[in-house]
Amino acid sequence: MTSDSFEPVTTPSRRTALAAVGAAGLAVALTACSSSDDSSSDTSGSSNSDSTSTSGASTAQGDAGGTELAKTTDIPEGGGKIFASQGVVVTQPTAGTYKAFSSKCTHQGCAVSSISDGVIVCPCHKSEFSVTDGSVKKGPATQALPAEQITVSGDSITLA
Hints:
Blueprint: H1 14-33, E1 40-43, E2 46-47, E3 54-55, E4 67-71, E5 76-77, E6 80-83, E7 88-91, E8 97-102, E9 114-116, E10 119-121, E11 128-130, E12 136-138, E13 150-153, E14 156-159
Parallel strand pairs: 3-8
Antiparallel strand pairs: 1-6, 2-5, 4-14, 6-7, 7-8, 9-10, 10-11, 11-12, 13-14
């Protein structure tokens, strides 16, 4: 009778198990902190269907290149649109005037999530920023959203 030798089954060490749990926890935390939608979101205001090309952040119309963000008709007057994957918010405070700001809140770095009643809102601690100049309207943030450079040419808005 032959006897096959059975080798004991090894189990993962405590260190391996703790590392796996830590990695899983980190993945959950990073997922929870990331934006839920990498596409753009359109918020507030009414669309102006016939806008002229002026930009509060930049009016360099001979500037070729850059990422096309939207058409001018996509940005509602008195409101704006958030482009999460590009990290930028484009607003139209008054008819034909376009501004761009970073979508990263200056308080703790959360991505802003909405625009309503003339303010850009951060969901983390409810800081509010002006659609006109990115200035703080309501804290806890103490610094304005940094301006971003855009180019408005005809009906096209591009990130410079």
